[in-house]
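STRUCTURE:
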């Protein structure tokens, strides 16, 4: 993907051809509700990594309309590796390879439709024994 303003690409109707959307958006401002609304309207399967508290926000249900996502919870908090040269919140330039645990629990919000129904995906996952993988 090119590093460009997604909102501009969207406004200009230049969203690239795609089969599924997988993203970890910024959590600030109104990025999450805007992305959820777009993902639902887009009509393709989507998988979005955001903090677990998102489902409790006032914007969550209205952003989804009739969509009923499923959730995939990792076994623990993710650890992120900082890219070299990016400033932290204090303005200090980070070195490559610095690791930081997220200050919140994240999980994947997903709508696999129209590729597969969420209930069918969950049935498949349970039958594969995956739910026993992490406890």
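SEQUENCE:
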């Amino acid at each position: 993907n090119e590093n460009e303003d997604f909102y501009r690409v969207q406004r200009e109707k230049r969203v690239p051809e795609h089969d599924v959307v997988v993203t970890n958006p910024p959590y600030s401002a109104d990025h999450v509700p805007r992305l959820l609304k777009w993902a639902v309207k887009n009509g393709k399967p989507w998988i979005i990594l955001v903090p677990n508290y998102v489902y409790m926000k006032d914007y969550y249900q209205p952003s989804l309309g009739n969509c009923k996502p499923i959730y995939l919870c990792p076994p623990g908090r993710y650890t992120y590796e900082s890219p070299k040269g990016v400033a932290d919140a204090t303005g200090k330039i980070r070195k490559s390879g610095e690791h930081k645990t997220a200050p919140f629990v994240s999980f994947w919000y997903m709508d696999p439709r129209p590729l597969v129904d969420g209930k069918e995906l969950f049935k498949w996952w349970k039958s594969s024994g995956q739910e026993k993988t992490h406890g």
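REMARK: The mean pLDDT is 85.
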